[in-house]
Give the backbone structure.
Amino acid sequence: MRENTQSGGGTMFFKITATLFIAAFLLSGAPAMAHKVMVFAWAEGEMVHTESKFSGGKKVNHGKISVMDGKGEVLLAGETDDAGKFSFRAPVRETLTIVMDSGMGHRAEWTLPAHELAATLTSSGIPENADVRGNSDLQKKNGVLEKSEVSAGGSLLSGGLDVPLAGKGEKAGGSVLSEADIRMIEAAVDRALDRKLAPLKKTLAEEKGAGPKVNEIFSGIGYILGLAGVGIYFNNRKSRS
Amino acid sequence: MHISEGVLSGPVLASGFAIAAAGTAFGFRKMDFDRIPQAGMLSAAFFVASLIHVPIGPSNVHLILNGIVGLLLGWAAFPAIFVALLLQGMIFQFGGLTTLGVNTVIMALPCVVCYHLFIPFVRGSGKAAMPCAFACGFLSVMLSALVMSSSLIFTEENFMEVAGMVVVAHLPVMVIEGIVTAFCVAFLKKVQPEMISGDWR
């Protein structure tokens, strides 16, 4: 003896699901990023390393990478290799948005904040301390840069630091640490820190993109069964009244 | 086969939502209360199936299970899949919330089509039941691939190229799903035939 309750349980279920949907939109402040495919990026000095993979762990082969600045202009583009990696030299010290498109409708983004990039990059893209890396061409081209070797008189401007040189004629090996020494030490420390921190940064990045955890799976199943239960409950009430 | 955020254009997303809303509303009407637990179980099964990756081949594909969902639920597959996709989007961030409509259509429309194509044979007791169950599982994944490719038409260059790639990438899934559907149908016919015949009286 069954009444025709075809639409009864259905409408209650519908109302509940609609409420859930609206709640989802209101509660999800940030847009839901697709985790079916993921891209991670971390900086090591001036180099930016990216790694792209699917949520099952499979690496993205020949995924298209495009690097954009804050205005959405594409600064550079490339493709991931067989291991899903793609590295590039950061062109500017700005917040970069790295977009990876693996085709078939799968796309992922990663925002790399400016402060993670090496301080040696300026926002105009010309490295200040170029001579530490031996880019003597850059020094000759750009009249702003001065050699940081000890030279007769003058002062060096670097990131706002205005320090007079150790003195005329005194070489870097003297009793006073010259500006060049300080610079070299800073650069060496920076490089060492970058090397040591890179694996940490990579792990942190991967943690953010980890796949579904078991408790999340159970919660999802629980939600579905709960919705079904609520639907049945309301339907029973309706058919009884 | 979830499409990510930021890939599709506004009109495609909007029409996806329109079709999904129509299908879901119709599915709710058709779903009588005896079937709610069944719909819930199948929705949960679909929810978990997307986590099962099929590592064959170059690209990353996962199980869909819309063959068996379609056979057992018919039009009610729309709300069941919609709820599962909504929760996947919220909890795992699989697919996106803007692409929820399009993803629902991609997964649920083949369910309904294959249901109407194959259910007479699967319900019958002839020899055609098993092969038709296999065909249902196989075809529903292929139709999903085609719907997905057509939704990508306005972003990708060439439909034939994208469709070919997606279908080929999902061939292992099609075979596996065909087998799974056939086994499920065989089991259910012996144990609880009402689930397939839909006759709960």
User: Anything to note?
Assistant: Chain B has a mean pLDDT of 84. Chain B touches chain A through 58 residues (CB under 8 Å).
